[in-house]
Design brief:
four-stranded antiparallel sheet; about 5% helix; binds calcium ion; VCBS repeat-containing protein; signal
Amino acid sequence: MSDQFLDAALRDAYLARDVVTARAGTALTTTCRSQQTSDLPSSGSVECRCGAAAGWRVTIGQVGSWWRDDLGRAVSALVALLSAAAFTVVGAPASAPTPAAVTASVSASVPASASAGVFGVPFEVFSGHGPGSVALDDLRGDGRTDIITVNLGDATVAVLLADGHGAFGPPQLYPTGPGPSGLATGDLNGDNVVDLAVSNQYNATVTVLLGRGDGTFGVPVAYPTGSGPSGVVIGDLTGRGTADLAVSDQFDGTVAVLLGRGDGTFGPPRLLPAGPGPSALAVDRLNDDDWSDLAVTNVADGTVVVLAGAGDGRFGAPRPYLTGPGPSSVSTGDVTGDARADLLVTNAGDATVSVLPATGHGTFGAGWSYLTGPGPSSVTLGDVTGDEVDDLAVANAGNATVSVLVGRGDSSFAPQRIYPAGPAPASLAEGDLTGRGGTDLAVANGRGSTVSILPAGVGVGQRQPTCDAHPGSPDIAW
Ligand SMILES: [Ca+2]
Ligand SMILES: [Ca+2]
Ligand SMILES: [Ca+2]
């Protein structure tokens, strides 16, 4: 094994003393190269030492897929986040099967994202061209979080199956209609297998793909919607326990409701007025009855409207609330801690995210907003820092970044921390993509062909690891 440190100071220290000192959050990367991909290990361990403490073995796992280097060799990156203050690397990954065929190198680096405190080393997986929306779900029922994207550039939906340790298979592509925009996952036919719904903006349809349970899908079936469908959600809109579809129709100012028959087929669209330029929608219980309601952003007048469900597939008149200019997406979640869903809206016109709190009477307050990057396109609410307080994550289409606003636990959020993603992030989703139990982010890079994955790292608010951390504690191995 050769030892190559990306950081010259770390390299010199290591060569001089076999010990390097690195900050908590340092990423240890072991890179394996081989002429044959079958030789590449996907996991292993290296021995490390923390100060004068006894050595321990750190488990490392493959991050991303393998790739080819300049010499045509297959390369696999194995990464662990070190929480120790100092370490010695002893030996190659234990799983390297044929040392003669595999060369491995070890590097240590302190990426900007790790030093900033929330995420580990980001990586990208290929998705197909122009992914405009990304969703995460367990498509095979194996407890692993798979990635699904819709790709505007080639009119496809891509399925990337997870190995459970942060690596994903190549995209399996299924055709959609032209201009696929929105994506929703859920069980549409009651067989407990995740299905997909995709809104197709250019031909006024929604495509339904029924899952087979093995990560593959049946023949796509299209149903008509209103004009210019921008987003789609799956929910039980009738209270019958079967899944229905709702689609925001950007060109004709409506929401299309398609009632499910329970077998994965859908009835004709019922078009409800929603306001000028519906750009996105969300489904949740937004008042205090038991029925699902809809929230729809209107890009043309800077509002989000709430359509209260009557529980039989019908909805009340749209009730508007002001957002910032150019609202581009809406999510729901309880920010205020009263167990009522609040509204989260990204405003592309002024680079903010708005929180509209539920008042408890089926209405929403004026709310407050926070700065994001330019062109925010998508927001999620979840705990990405590991302190059990929900945080906001926002994809910024205008500058290839993600903003994380760390929740303070009092309904407010700290100013944004900025992390790099790929070109024109159009959508993001949260889930455990690396199999470590943390909350990772997946970002669809709308003007690229990849999904950026920001793996949960040593986080703000987490217990800061020290040299006293004993081998095997959660913040040493991953
Ligand atoms: Ca199903
Ligand atoms: Ca609330
Ligand atoms: Ca948090």
